[in-house]
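TEACHING EXERCISE
Course module: macromolecular assemblies
Task: Read the component lines below, then compare them to the predicted structure of the full complex.
Student: A.B.
Group: 4
Components provided:
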Amino acid sequence: MDSHYHSRRAVPSSLVALAAISAFSIAPAPAWASSTRNSNLVEPKDASAQLVLWQSSSDGAPAYVSTFEKAYPNIKVKVVNSATATNDASMVSAAAAHKLPDLTRSADVDTYYFASHGVFMNLSPYMKAYGYKQSDFIKGIMALGQYNGNQYVVPRGFDEAVVAYNPSVLAMFHQPIPKEGWTWAQFQKEACAINGQKVGGKTYYGVGTNLPYTSYILYDPFMVSTGGGALNAAGTKATFDSPASLKGLTELANFSRSCTAWMDNLPKSVDPFDSGRAAFDIVVPDQVLTWPNAKGTAWSTVNFKVNIVNFPLLSPHPADGAGMIGFAATIDAKNPKAAAAFEMWMLSKQGEAAAAKAEGWIPLRLDLTKGNEWAAKYSFTKSTYHYSFNAGAFDSYTQDIVTPPAKLELGSDGTAYTAIANAWTAVQLKKESVKQAFTAATNAINNWLATQG
Amino acid sequence: MASVVLLRGDQSTSRRGRLSRQQRKRLREGYLFISPVLLGLVLWVFGPMFLSLYYSFTSYNVLQAPKWIGLANYRQLFNDPVFLHSFKITLLYAAVSVPGSLVIGLGIALLLNRPGKAIRLYRTVFYIPAVIPIVAGAELWTTMLSGSQYGVVNYILLQLGVVSNPIPFFNSPATAFWSLLILVFWGSAGGSMIIWLAALQSVPRDLLEASEVDGAGVLRRLWSVVVPLITPTIFFNLVLGMITALQTFATNFVISGGDTGAPLGALDFANIFIYRQAFGNFEMGYASAAAWVMFAVILVLTLLVFRTSRRWVFYVGTSR
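Instructor-supplied answer key:
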């Protein structure tokens, strides 16, 4: 926060924060806001502004932006395509040139970097002014958009690990269909019973492991479930090598060796679940949403019916990993109040409904997360997709989610990601034990963190 | 260039130290015509180069102003085991891939250096990989050489009983580097083949026939007649191949699925390391320092090849 970039604008930011804490505006709060509290940070509906939003071309932004513009007739949002692969580099270039868009999508792994360098606007004062409380939303998901206790990114689409299963394969090996509330032990038992068995010359697997193991969505809950974690409490050092973390990582590695296609299906390879040779796959809802193909059977490479069930509870500390992509307002927003109005609208019932309709995004509001309501209304539940949306499964998401510290930027590149990727590969190839591999990863990450100041 | 020609053409005037009005006008016009190129060169080539040289002495993450840290980035680089590993395997890759590509390209060219309709077809077939985009080629080969039993090559080998377990190819550090070479030889042979063919066809037939009359066999003719006459082409292919090899990036990026250099750093070549520092960690200063180290290495190696070329490159019509 002491960055050159941020300090250049420190005075207006401070004023904004101060105003948020002290003032109650005469402007009326929007009808969709969950509180009647007013503030001069709340943009009146007749205020005029033109916003630019950087978003992926595949996103359904035009649909929910249109709904927003109806709620705020004088605020226009121009959606500009920004390719996912180059979005970070574009953001950095635009920030350096002080030509950031008013609004941009942002992934969880970007939050720390852009928030800590003063690129994103602090939305906490606006949340307060609009009458939102953190406790209104799924805590673990909101945390992915926070830095230093403040909200910088409003999460929208979020990815949480779920389990897809192929009923035919389960039936073939006389295994029961999983039910909500099943435990890790049950999952493990079923998957291990199937793994490696041969029928008609074909090998079948327990779990296809579609989700890459370098994804923190998978390994973070294991560490947390055994009392460990990615960083120490002070957030200064990586702790993948702590006894508690190693216990969780070892549990995941052992499970992977014995019950999944992991050992036969090294990185950059095919997922046997896609070809009907695995009973389970660990996937994320986002993948579920993109499953339907033109035939309406399932996703593009799958020609059988699948179902999903909530991620099994890990004993003894139930936990589940999640990731998200959301929206941030930038420090270069020409009209910060208007930009914040868009962000706050995305948190409203109307905003969540519009986004769910356009994208199938699962709601963030606790008062809307009872799955059946959404299962009945929105795109991800269409029966033509030939899979059942386990709406009830999502009801228990709220308290189970754990997320890693953003400081590690565990995205798809950089030193931390590379260190974790190398550790898993070393374990998978049996070149190193879990302890050796993750001690090396911890050292590499800590060496890098030491250079970060 | 126009101005150079102009000045040379008017040396007598230059000696007098004055240009006529007409000459000055032509000079201005000349500069005007080349100004877009000059401007582009300064803005987009020299500008970024010298900026990156400056950044290499700074701590710079783009969002904050660069902070001068002297040689700290360079000191850190030479103590960074990850960079040293990247540097080492990049040199190894160049040392293996460049001669390999030269020999394979020349071998194919020798086989196809004969008349006939079918030969034209073969030449086209061998040249096709050279026009396939690098990314597409890399994706193609990751499927072909998939480390699982479902990979095309593994499937065939398993069915034929040649191997009992799938070869990990790009999935194991022991095999990834060598698997990459398969892809590289496939992709580069066609391009260099065309150049080799042009060189081979410029070898005077009378020299070949004379050596044949003198009793030289195929290998003797190749070694004593053909190779000396195509040394300028060898030199050209060597220099270009070396520079290209030391700058390899896209293929590894695709095969590793990003900037990790996976598996276990086996494909973590220097440019992947530089990219990771620049766009993964946003450490532009450190990345710039690594880029300048690689630039210096490429420059020194290229100059060395140029220097030694006096001893082994033979140009027809010149004497040593």
